[in-house]
Amino acid sequence: MKKGTLNIILKRTGYLGFLVLSVLLILEFCFRYQVIEFYGNELKGLNPNLENSKEKKNVLIFGDSFSAHPDSYIKHLRQAIPGINFINASIPGTGIRQHELIFKKRIKKFKPSAVIYQFYTGNDFLDIRHPVNFKTLSLGRNLYWLLSEKLLILQYFNMRLARFISHKQTLHELHNVKYSKSSYNLRTEIYFKGDPAYLSNSILLKEDKAEIYEIWRDKFVNMQRLLPDSTLVYLLVIPHCAQTNVVYLNRMQELGGNLKDDILYPEYPLLKKMSQEIEKAELINPLPFFQQKENDGVHLYYSNDPHLNIQGSKYLGEYLINELKL
Question: Fewest Cβ atoms nearer than 10 Å: which of 52, 123, 153, 233?
Answer without folding.
Answer: 52
